[in-house]
Amino acid sequence: MYAKGKGSAVPSDSQARE
């Protein structure tokens, strides 16, 4: 689901990965 890594679809997910 994280093809682009961050800012792929849900901003919350990107922040959680950082």
General description of the model:
The chain is 39% helix and 0% strand. The protein starts with 10 loop residues before the first helix and ends with a helix. The longest helix is centred in the C-terminal third of the chain and has 7 residues. It is mainly α and 18 residues long. The radius of gyration is 6 Å and the shape is globular.
Q: Average pLDDT value?
A: 60
Radius of gyration: 6 Å
Oligomer: single chain
Main sheet overview: none
Helical content stands at: 25-40%
How are the elements arranged and paired?
Blueprint: H1 11-17
Short description:
With 18 residues, this protein is an all-alpha fold.
List keywords for this structure.
18 residues; mainly alpha; 1 helix; 39% helix
